[in-house]
Amino acid sequence: MRVLVVEDEQLLADAVATGLRREAMAVDVVYDGAAALERIGVNDYDVVVLDRDLPLVHGDDVCRKIVELGMPTRVLMLTASGDVSDRVEGLEIGADDYLPKPFAFSELTARVRALGRRTTVPLPPILERAGIKLDPNRREIFRDGKEIQLAPKEFAVLEVLMRSEGAVVSAEQLLEKAWDENTDPFTNVVRVTVMTLRRKLGEPPVIVTVPGSGYRI
After folding, report:
1. Residue 5: is it exposed, middle or buried by C-beta count within 10 angstroms (0-12/13-18/19+)?
2. CB-based contact 112:46 (threshold 8 Å)
3. Helix and strand tally (H, E) in the chain?
4. pTM to 2 decimals?
5. Which of 36, 122, 155, 169 stands the most exposed, by the fewest C-beta atoms within 10 Å?
6. What is the pLDDT of residues 57-110, one digit of tens each?
7. b or e along 78-111 (b: 16 or more beta carbons within 10 Å of the residue's beta carbon)?
8. Cα–Cα distance measured from residue 22 to residue 136, given in angstroms and rounded to the nearest whole number
């Protein structure tokens, strides 16, 4: 899942981003509304965690732009105000969910995951394919009943492949969904991660390389 965190309190923004990355999400961070508009014009995000009171461009205007562009991106709006009228106003602008500060990180994570599921074709909470069972919420993976431990990026790549339901996923698509914008697109990080993932998943191999196209399960 690709997430954009937009928050002018840099310590909070960086802490949220770090926590979401530990949950196997690819996260970009910006600290003002103008930078947010720039990012959403370049990258495809599943969810934008959007502070309402932003410098340069207000969070409301960023949200309106996402709606105006007809993007499938879901917006989780943050604010220091917990008034019902503010929540209603934020939802009417086009936000998909609303979370007042201060918040529990576990709740924010759950809401981001819930919104992320709404950007794609609905799938069951637990993904199953080729003997693999993946639970995104608990971050648990089993193959033929045996639990497998994966690093966050390995988990993210496997989740993208599982969600594709047998379709081929290109290296570029994996890079877009599992890594943030600071990753060099010319590195072999996708190939190396897939190789490690294959080894950890064991025999027989379930990740198929489609020459010139990408990977599928």
Report:
1. buried
2. no
3. 8, 11
4. 0.67
5. 122
6. 999 999 999 988 888 899 999 987 666 676 677 678 889 999 998 999 999 999
7. bbeeeeeebbebbeebebbbbbeeeeeeeebbeb
8. 13
